[in-house]
Amino acid sequence: MQVQTRIEISDAEWEVMRVVWSLGAATSHDMITALREKMNWKDATVKTLIGRLVKKGALTTEKKGRAFIYHPTIEEQAAIDDATTSLFHHLCRMRQGQAVSNLIDDLTLTQGDIERLQAQLAKKLETAPVGVTCDCLPADFEMQCD
Ligand SMILES: [Zn+2]
């Protein structure tokens, strides 16, 4: 099934998707076992989340013998990019740089990640504006964040 519109995934549903993405395909038993161990969730909770993800079109089912195999319909990287892009679009343009900086402080990055970021930033710097304006209010309000 091809999903055209962006699928909103809740925090709990993300945990289910991470199991499926890691395994490539999973039975409900796989997901229940993994999330019982990792999150201490009840079987019924995981079953409910699986049902929601199927309804949203994030998972498809395939019957193999007596078991249902679940497959993700969205790529992990695409889902991650959608979620982060959507989050950053909620932020004032003036706050985005600081938010990225705080995030970098908070994350465990590999040397490879850091080298890639450094190269990206050096390239960005060549065309970066000196400042950006707030986009929280329409221009005719003549007010902005500081
Ligand atoms: Zn603003």
UniProtKB/TrEMBL annotation:
The keyword Transcription regulation applies. Keywords: DNA-binding, Transcription, Transcription regulation. SUPFAM superfamilies: Winged helix' DNA-binding domain. Pfam families: Penicillinase_R (PF03965). Gene3D superfamilies: Winged helix-like DNA-binding domain superfamily/Winged helix DNA-binding domain. The keyword GTP-binding does not apply. It comes from the Bacteria. InterPro entries: BlaI_family, Cu_transp_CopY/TcrY, WH-like_DNA-bd_sf, WH_DNA-bd_sf. Belongs to the BlaI transcriptional regulatory family. This is CopY/TcrY family copper transport repressor. It comes from Agrilactobacillus yilanensis. The lineage of its organism: Bacteria, Bacillati, Bacillota, Bacilli, Lactobacillales.
